[in-house]
Every structure is written in structure tokens, then in C-alpha cells.
Specification:
about 150 residues; 6-stranded mixed β-sheet; 7 strands; about 20% helix; globular
Length: about 150
């Protein structure tokens, strides 16, 4: 079992099969190897379409990852909604953007739920540096200018 899948299994072993997901897009810096999250998509189809549209862009490689939605009222994601991405490392709301890589761990509709999850999992064996970043579904975030 891969490290990411093992992490998800340990964080929510009884519910992982029934959760909805968002799909986080990362831009891989071919010179720096940094991987900032640049967007979050409500469907795998939208994530793959974005990759297809940018396949020929020089000096840019994209990768994406499915991240489970957590919370009492797990919701079907819709374009334009804000989700709060909890990641291990990387930039977060209120902290100046950097080209630091992040690994998405979970997404929430509520900022309070995301902050609580991050606090509960700080410096655990599986999440060493949890951060919370607000992102709009199906709209790209440019970490260099911090616009949403």
C-alpha cells in the first residue's frame, strides 16, 4: 500500500470508501522540483481536461491527486464552492506564498473543521506539518500572486 493510501486509511479507515473527493492539481517546477497546489477540481474529468489543455506548455509538468472530503455533512463538490485543503507542508492561508511542495491530506467545507483536523494531526507519524489553504473548486489559484 502506498504511503498516501496508508495515510488515508489510518486517518479514516471506516469511511474512506464512502467519501466524495476533490482533485488537487500541482505544478511541478522542472528546475526547482517544487510542487505547489495550483487548483482543486470537483471532478476527475475536469482535472484531466486541464492537464490535456496544458500538455505542451514548456517548463511545466502537472500532476494531480484525489483528496477525500471530510466532515459531518460530506458534500458533493460543486464548481465555485470554497474548500479548505489540509496538506502536509506547503503554503497556507495567512502565510506568504512560497514554492514549497505540499501533499494534500483532506478537504473540508468548513474552515473550522479543517483547522481542527490540522490541530489533531499536527506532528503525528503521518502528518508532520499540517497546513490549511482555502481554494475555489474548478478555479485555479496562482500561488505566486496568491489570487483566487
Amino acid at each position: 500500500m502506498g504511503k498516501f493510501r496508508a495515510l488515508l486509511h489510518r486517518l479514516s479507515p471506516s469511511t474512506i470508501g464512502s467519501l466524495n473527493y476533490v482533485h488537487v492539481m500541482y505544478e511541478v517546477g522542472l528546475e526547482t522540483l517544487d510542487e505547489p497546489a495550483i487548483g482543486v477540481f470537483s471532478s476527475e474529468t475536469n482535472a484531466l481536461a486541464y492537464i490535456d489543455d496544458h500538455r505542451d506548455v514548456p517548463h511545466m509538468e502537472l500532476r494531480w491527486q484525489s483528496v477525500p472530503l471530510h466532515g459531518d455533512d460530506v458534500f458533493a463538490p460543486k464548481a465555485g464552492e470554497i474548500v479548505y485543503l489540509v496538506s502536509d507542508g506547503g503554503p497556507s492561508d495567512g502565510i506568504e506564498a512560497t514554492y514549497v511542495s505540499s501533499v494534500g491530506v483532506a478537504a473540508f467545507r468548513s474552515r473550522e473543521d479543517a483547522l481542527g483536523f490540522a490541530a489533531d494531526h499536527r506532528e503525528t507519524r503521518y502528518v508532520s506539518d499540517p497546513r490549511v489553504l482555502s481554494m475555489v473548486l474548478d478555479a485555479l489559484t496562482d500561488e505566486r500572486t496568491k489570487t483566487v
